């Protein structure tokens, strides 16, 4: 049983999507939509909003905001409006005082959430390998910086010696 924040049916659907081979040729309109949706989902707030609405269902604006620490009201509004424009969320306004607004995932949004679930599955399966790669990279970069700094210190010392030698030489030649 996975500890990912998705229902088992969503995980199964994501696995089926991941196992489907892409077509040899694609419709340019589909390709354009994929690029636009990647741009939308690449925005971390959209991904988090998808996750919140997947896990908690229909939510009021303030409940979504509470579940997305660090997001400003303006950014949450922009994120939800963009998702609504793309058909990922439905916004329902109730004629009450004070006004109440709810957001829920549409079938399109739920489908995108299922597709994105594949990234969660991949991350869970490859977490240790990615962390090991990052540690190795960071250690090599730190070693390279250390070598570079040592070389710069050596160059500066050599330059000072050269300046000192030049000063001595100018005082004796004449």
In brief:
The chain is mainly α and 174 residues long. The chain has helices spanning 8-19, 28-42, 44-56, 61-66, 73-85, 107-172, and strands spanning 59-60, 89-94, 100-105.
Q: What is the string of SSEs from the N terminus onward?
A: HHHEHHEEH
* Average pLDDT over all residues: 81
Quickly count the helices: 6
Helix content: over 70%
The largest sheet is: 3 strands, antiparallel
Q: What is the name of the CATH topology?
A: Arc Repressor Mutant, subunit A
Query: What is the overall silhouette?
Result: elongated
Number of strands: 3
What is the alpha-carbon Rg in Å? 28 Å
CATH architecture term: Orthogonal Bundle
What is the straight-line distance between the termini?
88 Å
Number of domains: 1
Q: Could you walk me through the main structural features you see in this protein, from its secondary elements to its overall organization?
A:
This protein has 174 residues and is mainly α. It has a single domain (8-172), classed as Arc Repressor Mutant, subunit A. 72% of the residues lie in helices and 8% in strands. It has helices at 8-19, 28-42, 44-56, 61-66, 73-85, 107-172; strands at residues 59-60, 89-94, 100-105. Strands 1-3-2 form a 3-stranded antiparallel β-sheet. The longest helix has 66 residues, at 107-172. The model has no long low-confidence stretch (mean pLDDT 81).
